[in-house]
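HUMAN: Now follow token order:
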Amino acid sequence: MLEISNTVNLADWEIELSAIRSQGNGGQRVNKVATAIHLRFDIKRSSLPAVYKEKLLKSKDSRISKDGVIILKAQSFRTQEMNKEDALNRLKEIIQQAMVVVKKRRETKPTKGSVMRRLDSKANRKTIKKTRQKVQF
């Protein structure tokens, strides 16, 4: 069972894990051991609350297919157990990130003082430029 939050848990039957051979350079065990983990999680069939499902399906994450299936491949570690744990942690992160609410940016106006300082400096530059033009022949 994977615990997403205090109220949301995923059962083991919802997450499909399969062992595959890792990519990369060979070694003595290269043709015998399948240490990488391929994780598939169907969002539509899951027991997640409807809010979670909507936000996950709307997200533009490349790891989520058009059919609503999250596909992850974990092959960073040498052991199958560590890769399995890594894949489950990454799935948990994806689901938790979908529920984070991003604050909308509020536009701000410049203060009166900053506007006056900007206009004064422009006026000063204009007078300096005029005096330089008069001096030059």
